[in-house]
Records
---
Amino acid sequence: MPDSEQLRRILERIDGRGYKAYKDVQGSYDFGSFVLHIDHVQGDPFAAPSKVRVRVPQRVAELPPELAGNAVRRVALEDFLARTVSRAIRATVGGRRGTGKSGLIAVDAGGQEVIERTAVVVTPDWVEARLEVGLPAAGRRVLGRQAEAMLCDEMPRIVEQGLLWRNLPQQSAQRFVECIENFEHIRGSLEERGLIAFVADGAVLPRESGASDRPLNAKEAVAFQSPESFRVTMDLPNALPAGERAITGMGIPKGVTLIVGGGYHGKSTLLNALERGVYPHIPSDGREYVVTSRDAVKIRAEDGRRVERVNIDPFISNLPYGRSTAAFSTDDASGSTSQAADIIEALEVGAKVLLVDEDTSATNFMVRDARMQALVHKEHEPITPFIDRVRELYVGHGVSTILVMGGCGDYFDVADHVIMMRDYLPIDASADARALVRDHATQRRAETTTPMPQNTARIPLAESFDPSRGRRDVKIDAKALDLILFGTEAINLRGVEQLVDVSQTRAVGHAIHLAVERFMDGNATLREVVDRVDRFFDENGLDALDPFHRNARHPGNYARPRKYEVAAAINRLRSLRMRQDTS
Ligand code: ADP
Ligand code: MG
């Protein structure tokens, strides 16, 4: 294998030549304490940056094996290392060095959530970071000296500071890994305790601003405190920094739970934290011990979205002019039909908890009050409102709901638990709500006429997906957190609120392609397809999604999506065609 001196010589030789000359550096170089793999060289300074890996043997990195001793710990350690590499890059790299992406070195480190990602890989034998490098150019000419500084001088410093145990903040690493393991342990015990979520005492739920996911500063934030009647204690596998081996907080039981309270008292903030609680968070986030069932899905209205052959009949039937809702399709859903489809689609792929906020719901979907029932007769109202299905969802289908509802007390009739937010703190209002149900009967009548049927399975048709664009057979990009370009189609994910990292979005785009190629055989239902994608990730790792499999062996910028978000993206593809499985 050539060494770093040979890399220097190549860069000196191609200095000043046309940008294509950079192709000569593709290959692997022995740097003594690590190997630099230049896997893919960009075509020009403005193209997607070059792809590089640095692989360090464990005899050099010396990461303690116990920090990667099981799958949860390994994912946490890899995530932590992506952050230390990112910090090392910021401390080392000089900034822009010419045209286009010249001078860039980047690693795909995460935000507040900790998610399985491909940026760093830890094995018993080595640790590897995957980086993007903008090979520097003046105009379109190779800047060989600058490239030499980046690859031969800065890169070893990044490796030293970002990946070698002796230079890492060891206590933070330990705490980080233990925190994630604690989180997963709590999640693992929710089920046996009959809970669907846990919010630790002392948690900081509000964020800095609508545009920042960091915690609100400690002076302004009111720390969470569980009401006594909801308080539970969770044992922890790893002691907290102060030494405790258990943590107390609010356990939200299965069933129908309302979050009520005055406007601006923190209802949505609590629900948002629960939505994000499907992922672990970094220590110091404030939500690191907010833990939600893996199978919790945010439901909302999203008018304008596409819907393909969804049986929304449990919620909407008898549309004007006899239009069927048992296989309902539209290119432009209304608020209520989109919310109905969102629920049915979530149930279809296995959701066990629905998270609903009145702020993002269609009012007519949520409830029809007594006066409206009197004015508009049921035979002229296609909607069976959520209030008339929410108990049945739980009792008949085992699906719990957590619902923010400040505006309609009719929901007291159908709630198991009522949590009232007052001045950002929760109070158990269940007894008061029950008393009101007894003493102030609602005038409204339940509107269900038929029981909710089992879900109608749908089979996605592979031929309705086309990932090609121009001369490329497969062209799939994540343009933003909420936008995938799949071939020539844009998949709008603005209503998919539990997608939290653009690298998840990217993975979703490529996972759809994988699903089409491998799993959509004309018989597999959507549920089976997304379950297989999930199993594929378990068995092969996210790396196997690599769109560059011909010229580079790593993507380095995927984060793992849940099956719910993969399904949500498929469901929003405008070209999607489904067959209902009526067998
Ligand atoms: P609601 O849904 O009840 O109307 P929100 O959850 O939207 O209220 O919260 C209103 C405002 O209060 C937001 O700006 C939010 O950041 C802030 N907030 C929420 N919870 C807390 C808290 N625990 N401490 C301080 N501020 C909070
Ligand atoms: Mg709100």
---
Amino acid sequence: MLPHARSAWIRTLGVLALVLLGALVLGLLAGQVWPVLTAAALGIVAWHYWRLRKVLLRLTSHRRLPPARGEGVWNELDRLLHRSQDDTRNRKRRLVQMLRAYRAAAAALPDAVVVLDRNSQRVQWFNEASAGLLGLRYPSDIGAPLGERLRPLPIAHWLASGRHAEPLLDVPSPVDPALRLSMRLIPYSQELWLLVARDVSKLMHLEQVRRDFVANVSHELRTPLTVVHGYLDMLDPSDQPEWAPILEEMRRQSQRMTQLVEDLLTLSRLEAQDTVSDESVGMASMLATLRREAEALSQGRHTVAVQDRAAVDLWGSTRELHSAFSNLVANAVRYTPAGGSITIGFAQQGEEVALSVEDTGYGIPAAHLPRITERFYRVSTSRSRELGGTGLGLAIVKHVLQLHQARLEIESEVGRGSIFTCIFPADRAHPRDGTGSGAIRERTQQPTRQA
Ligand code: ADP
């Protein structure tokens, strides 16, 4: 017991003893001991009930009552209750202030923030920006199912995938299709999700300007390069033998520039596309073409093998897939010293199908792998340039595979070689049942672009 409470307790017992003693003396003097003692005891009980009532009043009152003054257990109890009520009130005030500050901050965010019930996907709360970006209205949309409310957006499926939902990069706003949004779903508790939508219109516009710039510059460079190339071809080194090495170097460099421009144009074309054609890609002839190209590039310096183990063809764009696969084959030849071998494989991998290009070349240090598909990222710039690389091959591969909902996996060991595997989802494959190459698939449920 606290010293305060202990002394109050002793004092109360003392007062009780004094009152009883007084009553006893009064009783003896009056010759009526028991009636006087009983009256005193009843008085004490009544007083205690009165104090108990005061405690109840304090606990149930909505007003702030002042603390009791004076000594004794009841007054001490009253003061303790007053202090604990004060503490609780202060804590509550601080919490409410904090909550208001958080709400004000969330409400003032320029991004749309919507709190969703995880199970019903109904709106629990949203901030002001949600009105401008998503078209939500207060209070009618509180409790509304978000998927239906934003129906023009194809997000019902996305919402259903919950914590596995990849961020959507570029979706039109239901308020104004010119407004582009990026959306993320963030599960932040067992019951609630947060949907955050950000206006990325300016970013998308800048990205478009960048793409157009690269595409235009590449396009403009094409004609002068063709002219330079043409004139260089007309020059005969036997006319001026001392110019022969210079002419040879000029031809090599102009070829490199032409290849760079072509790769940039390919990348620009791929970036501008959201989907690819859905034709049947004959893999037997594709593998034969890749083998021929590998042999032509290798000029007998490597052993080239093809292992066709999947009796399926792919749905997709023959042109784009060929461009991706031939980039992998060209890299395998380029980065494998003479005497090495190159194996092009096509096989089923569980439900999926995989085209792999394996070489016994230089390999890639593990530290470079995460960035290897970035444009102009090279392990060794000098080696790539010397061997005729543009630094854009793997960026093209990545884009083509994304357009086919496929992914690129790379395994590599320095000094031992590399395996580049393009893995296609099961619905990109169909049996080689004589569906002619170029036949068009009947379906086009196009996915929204994801990060
Ligand atoms: P590049 O035109 O320089 O080959 P890529 O984008 O095709 O550009 O490849 C990027 C880099 O990845 C290359 O510069 C090279 O360092 C490395 N690389 C690609 N393929 C292979 C491979 N099969 N073996 C070793 N390194 C490779």
